[in-house]
Write a structure and sequence with these properties.
With 145 residues, the chain is mainly beta. 12% of the residues lie in helices and 38% in strands. The protein has one helix at residues 33-49; strands spanning 13-19, 55-61, 75-85, 89-99, 106-119, 135-137, 140-141. The structure holds coenzyme A. Coenzyme A binds at residues 57-60, 86-89, 115, 117, 119, 123, 125.
Length: 145
Amino acid sequence: MADARVDPAGSRRLALQVVTLPRDTNPLGTIFGGVILGYIDQAGYVEARRHGAHRWVTASIDRVDFKAPVHLGDIVSLFTRTDRAGTSSVTVRVEVESERYLTGDRIPVTSATVTMVAVNAAGRPIPFSSAPTIMMGPGRPASDD
Ligand SMILES: CC(C)(COP(=O)(O)OP(=O)(O)OC[C@H]1O[C@@H](n2cnc3c(N)ncnc32)[C@H](O)[C@@H]1OP(=O)(O)O)[C@@H](O)C(=O)NCCC(=O)NCCS
């Protein structure tokens, strides 16, 4: 039976959109690769957070090949899906696209597979299906309202 925690192959949801600013770019006007890696990390967290209100840490980011540059002013979109759900970890596919500032064309930039692990306050892995472990106030579970 299909795992309901896992998304169908090929599906994806928007996790993050960011405008490329001068501080993100090198003297050629293209983005630093490390900035994209930071966005990939954040997108992995956004997807993992859907599976439980916990501290999530990044266990791994697999090989990242940059296929096209991102230019100053481009809008970078990061799409995610959950490819695998374990006990304390989820494996997230992240796809990165750049919307060109001048033309609006959407260009695939890179993709990555990120594994996020739910941990307790001591940093030890915990089942992410457990009750929320981050609190908004004394004794109060985190909530979206
Ligand atoms: C990630 C971390 C919590 C794993 O701790 P650990 O004691 O090795 O964990 P375990 O061997 O019990 O594995 C726990 C889960 O993590 C997964 N996991 C552990 N290391 C992994 C890795 N390098 N890549 C992918 N998954 C990994 C395991 O497969 C397991 O998944 P499951 O519970 O869904 O089956 C620990 O290595 C850590 O704290 N790393 C630093 C994280 C961090 O600070 N990241 C920010 C960047 S510096």
